[in-house]
Amino acid sequence: MIDKEEISEIIQDSKSYLNNQIELNRLKATEQASLYSSKVIAYLILGSVSLLFLICVSLFLGFILSEYFANFATGFGLIALAYFAILVLLFAFKRQIIGKPIQNKIIRDLYGK
Question: Which residue ranges in the chain fall short of pLDDT 50?
């Protein structure tokens, strides 16, 4: 038969186990949050630098085309037209081009595959 001391010890061990599980889950959640936060910040930095690069390249091409056509409106208009075409394509195929790859990346990251 189990005496009071053994029951007390079992209860104490159970409390300790539950507290350790809670702490472990909290640490895991903190690790996941910090991992995803660092990824978001890294992507924001990469996106910002990429955007600056794209702006510089666009200005460069605008001036080159303006010189070629001897008209600023034509040179920069062609660049704007190219971006408009890209924008239309992105809107038309946003699910296939943007949505699915991002969704798959998030699922891979969440399940560690």
Answer: none
pLDDT digits (tens, 9 = 90+) for 36-67: 889 889 999 999 999 999 999 999 999 999 99
pLDDT of residue 1: 65
| 33/37 Cα distance (integer angstroms) | 6
Other CB atoms closer than 10 Å to residue 75's CB: what's the count? Answer: 19
Residue 80, by phi and psi: left (phi above 0), alpha (psi -120 to 50) or beta? alpha
Angular region, 3: left φ>0, alpha ψ -120 to 50, beta rest: beta
Structure tokens at 12: 């104490």
Closest CA to 59 of 47, 75, 48: 75
Range of the domain at 93: 4-111
Query: How many domains does the chain contain in total?
Result: 1
